[in-house]
Amino acid sequence: MTSDKVSNAGSIFDPTLLSRCISCGFCLPACPTYALTADEASSPRGRINLMRALESGTLPPGDPTLAEQASFCLGCRACEPVCPAGVQYGELLEQWRGFQWTGRGRPMAVRFLIFAAERAWAHQIAGRLRRAAHAPAAGSQHSLMLGCFERTLFPEVSRSALALAPELAVPGNQGCCGALHAHNGEPERGRQLAGQLGARLPGQIVTTSGGCAAHLSSVLGRDRVVELSEYLQNRVTGQVRIGGRQARVALQDSCHLRNGLDVWREPRALLSTVAEYVELASAARCCGAAGTYALVRPRDSRRVLDPKIDEIEAAGIDYVVAVNPGCLRQLRQGLRRRKSAVRALHIAEILRLAAD
Amino acid sequence: MLSTARMNRILGGRPEEMLARAEPGVSTMALNDAAAAHGLFYPPDPGSRTVSTIGGNVATCAGGLRGLKYGVTRNYVPGLTVVLPTGEIVRTGGRLWKDVAGYDLTRLITGSEGTLGVITEVTVALLPDPSASRTGLAYFDSLTQAGRAVSGILAAGVIPSTLEFLDRSCIDAVEQYAHLGLHPDAGALLLFGDDGDEAAVARSFERITAVCEDSGAIAVQTAGDATESEALLTARRCTLPALSRLGSLTIHEDASVPRPRLAEMVARIDAIAARHRVTMATFGHAGDGNLHPTCVLESAEDTEGIARAEGAFAEVFRTAIDLGGTITGEHGVGAAKLPYLEQRLGKAQMDLIRRIKTAFDPAGILNPGKLGS
Fold first, then answer.
1. DSSP code string of A187-224
2. What is the topology classification, in CATH, of domain B132-236?
3. CATH number for A24
4. Whole-prediction pTM value?
């Protein structure tokens, strides 16, 4: 066996992180791709075994199963809170993709998105054109982060957030937080961008994106970062009403917010204050947006989403609420395809609706 | 590699007969959930029940947390469908509780570790879901004291559904993972539970509490509600993986001794660990005399440490046999314990097992190098 081993083995993963898994399999029921396939290689345990095979040289770096599984994984980290051994799977996946998705191994969609995210000036102009929130830093203690793609796709999200928390500064010169890079094969650049953004924004950074919150926390420290629903605890008012009755709303968790930062009670508490809250059985399960996943693997992304849309349609709700722009986009598309009467809103939007 | 993971359908239940048929890939949890819909439950409760499958349970005769009162997998499998290595498909046993037509092949195959045939369908027996259940905790200064309490509880005529113990290192590891607020200074923890009708459960809890206090418990607590109960049980089920937080390599073992020798066995394990200079954490099913000594090493590359751990375990198995116990209570023989098997069974039984294996699998195609080879 030793003679088959490959030269670049032994340098891809942090050995302490990689050794932590004891293959108990408690992660299997939590994994969406294992649920789709019942294939061990598509489970967190199976993928860690693949990482180990890559690290030890048992599998050559060009092995097609390695490429397939590194990409098939949603990166939702649902395996982390259920892992008694404390395996930091998200971290391992970043290291894996850092190796797998270099050069020609990187999916086209990812290359395009990273190219776009790197153009901070373009987001800044787009933010102005689309009238995303803007407020000079004078006198403000804390700041609102503007998501790079959110500025173009959902400018009303930051506007709503600023209306709910007008004391926040919203500097216009913000770039990408680097989550996109970290999750897609450039962990170093991801850390660098988070550091730059941290230096640019005063005080605590309030964010409307669960994914950005988790990434920024991992670089800047948990104390610097507050997700919007955490920030707004105990200060929302009003009611969302539809045709004279209280609106029925459900939540779609943001995977990284829930699994990475353990924030999931907070948005529920806010929604229960302003509407009749309905818990979806699959609320904590990935919607399939998963950052770049919906673009890199559109078919698998829909396979993950479809049962959730069925559940949303059957729940008799008026709104489904997201705490991350990627999930919002995914839910809106899924609901539109079904011509559903249910509307997807960001939590900032629905809270603004209640306050008005 | 042969996997039955995708054969995961429950083929049908006969609630009035308290039976169900399932394919081997159905998880223990899924089977239990399906049974619960009919007011029934599947008693064997392996710690890994969210992922362990019925087929795997049968192949290993899995035990678990309810063994003391309810027994283990073999007590709940009246029938099997098995594909033999020679190509025939046989149905052993069936729906009947009384059936002595021929050898009990169902029991022979249960626990045969995949060496005799491929299980493709399992008939399982269910029981009515008990109307009440409760869980409690008792803390002791030492495992020896906890062991005494276990003997005392059984002597008092109580058969709890759950009677589990954790030593100091296990308590720490579980607390790190589950944040339950476990006692920070206790040397041992006894987790007990019972189910049945409300009054009976209350009665056995009174007696268990009294015995624990008499045996010198530092504190005895009862879980407030079902959620708290479930949190305690979940924490116990996660003990092994949680232990792996303490180092890079965990070597997990399994031995059983007659119940009255439990405290003695634990003390002997401690002495063995000290003699071999290894960190050994022990937890297990106190009521069954079934212990899981687990060795945690700083580094997976520590070959010298691994050798010391192996030396310690060899001595643990020998001690278990000396005390009238066995080298594995529920985890099986596999490859790792094969070298110790003859110590437990003797030559005549080893030969008999080989002849049985040859009768089922003359070409030796199923799980070669394991039991019977």
1. HHHHHHHHHHHHHHS-SSEEES-HHHHHHHHHHH-GGG
2. Alpha-Beta Plaits (3.30.70)
3. 1.10.1060.10
4. 0.87
